[in-house]
Amino acid sequence: ATASAAPESRYRFDELTWGNDETHHIANGYEADVLLRWGDPITADAPEFDVMNQTAEAQLQQFGYNNDYVGFTPLNAEGTHGLLCVNHEYTNEEVMFPGLGRQDKQGFAGMTKELIDIEMAAHGGTVVEIARDASGKWAVVRDGAFNRRITPLNTAMTIDGPAAGHARMQTNADASGKAVIGTLNNCAGGMTPWGTWLMAEENFHGYFWTDARDSDGKPDLTAHQDAASKKRYGVPGGWYAWGQHYDRFNIDKEPNEPNRFGWVVEVDPRKPDAKPVKHTALGRFRHEGCETTISATGKLVVYMGDDNRFDYQYKYVSNGTVSHTDDANGNLLSDGILYVARFDADGTVHWLPLVHGEGPLTAENGFASQADVLIDTRLAADALGATPMDRPEDAQPRGDGTAYIMLTNNSKRKDTQLNAANPRAKSNFGHIIEIKEAAGDHASTTGTWSILVKCGDPELAEVGAQWNPETSENGWFGSPDNCAFDADGRLWISTDQGSKWGKTGKSDGLYALETEGELRGHSKLFFRCPVGGELCGPYFTEDSETLFLAVQHPGTDGTKALQGFERASTFEDPATRWPDFDPKMPPRPSVVVVTKTGGGRIAV
Ligand code: FEO
Ligand code: CA
Ligand code: CA
Ligand code: CA
């Protein structure tokens, strides 16, 4: 070797060529097989999917829509048999239901109660047993004893932690303030060290409805005592028509119901009869994800973003320590301290505690108790002077005290609103921050931060991108959303460009992003989505031989802005019919399982 030899990537695979077409692509030497599609039966009794004759009853036994987070917990020592846990974030009525275009933003004029029940049953989550066969391929175990759907239609849940039972958590249907039906808009999530599944409730505001409108047609909140809180959370968003048929989603009838959403939900996939629990100690906001790690002193630490322009990065530190037995870990998510991040220009990050009675979080400022601090986490974080970020999406901690924060984009940031950690105005492509917690301890209340990459096309000076210069035209990306580590602690990033697809012309995909050495900030393309689909997951099994990916809403995002796809998709005329390519089937969100041809660890 000579001194000028190009540094070698730690990720051993030949980069995929960027592009955009009707199907998915994986790097040479790998297989990407569709494992589960929207509508696939997940119980022994489930009917086969019949897209022209959908019912809520059938959907309750079938894989849900818009798969986002994917987690896995093994049932055997070899890790060849286990439980896949998948979030179903939201629904795209225009491609789910024949003859139904997206008619307005005020609740879909064509939505009947029957269709609403189907889409409620398509939200939530799925637990399903999967196993590798003799050839090494993964398949669903349809009669698995643990298989179940979790939905906002009919899954009873418990509320715990400091806000449980508070007057603001009580409704006509639940005087206890501790019992709620269902979970909403579950985006990313996490698996705990004890094998439970955390589902993050993200854009819950969009499901609430009001008939009280001002002269501009905007929600009129004057009848609400907590109007400032509702406004700060965007309640009611009016994205769905559910509130026209269910009182609990109509704030005129149930003004407190929105306070029972926006939390982190814990599900024990090994206990199919156990009620999921909403943990109020982890705060209420548009939770993107909730990835966990164990601190140097054995505490559970959870990193969580609030995915909204100018909102904040949070972390939660348990008071007790992780013992790896089910029982002893019972209250780690109920008893702890929630912090919000302030990123200073000198490169330090300060984690500010959201504790009632400390600093400005007092009754005089509208926080009568810790329940108020948590129900109004955003208002409490405002009072503490947290740093307004460019939409914090997934955040991934690594055991060594490092964490990566995905900031997806913020086209609304003005020149006058820049800060050191969010340095670009009108940021269309986002950036990634690396945090090193003090003493390598995730429970530290200070650390240092730096920008790992600024995303976007490095060839365009006006974009202001920052990549390792070895990054190729295939390797750069925009709008980081989810992230994961493989078994070697190497970082992988998936993208969600949303309406910004046309700004790169690239499909969403999975990228291997170097964090160490000479190639720090170097990115390589490994997988790309069919047109209009965003990439979620990703999740590596413990042996790194399997990678689960979730292709969400194929055929929908940004297609109007792309050459060759200049139309909004509908059931009848989608931009792609991935993965079935059946002229009678709409595109279907699906989980894809990636393995190396012939077996072995991925990218090794
Ligand atoms: Fe559901 Fe923030 O993406
Ligand atoms: Ca996301
Ligand atoms: Ca993740
Ligand atoms: Ca997303």
TrEMBL record:
InterPro entries: PhoX, TAT_signal. PROSITE patterns: TAT (PS51318). This is PhoX family phosphatase. It comes from Pseudophaeobacter arcticus.
